[in-house]
# Entry
Amino acid sequence: MKPVLIRATEAEVLSASGVTLFADVPDTNGHLTSHRSIFKPGKEGAPPHLHKEAAELFFVLTGSLRVLTGEDVITLTPGDFLVVPPNTPHAFEAAGAEDTEVLFVLTHAKPRFDYYRLLESVYRGDTEPAELAKTSDLYDNHYVESPNWQNR
# Structure
């Protein structure tokens, strides 16, 4: 495998959802998938879900991010690093009054870029949100209930 370099000017940007795609599982010979998300204040990033196979790394670049990890709701600030192991319910949203920028890396993941493209279509109003739930096994993104997240 050769090194993977994605220049900022070459990365695919999904403007409605605030996602910039860097490298997906096929690009990294199965090792990881990575993207950056920018969340507007008060914008939910993802409802409670878990990945059966993948671990998910969060690295906050700017702003603050409220995160559900299992039963706990915590707030991450710039420079904070969090790894959520497989089968751990998690959710996240911008927590402050400024944009929040987060780098995400998933390891042992299934290819995910088409999931983010589908999400982009939902954000634009071209696709019903229920379509996301139909892709749970395909993208290892399983939605769950979380009273702690609902009561945050």
About this structure: The first helix runs from residue 113 to 123. The chain is about 15% helix and 40% strand.
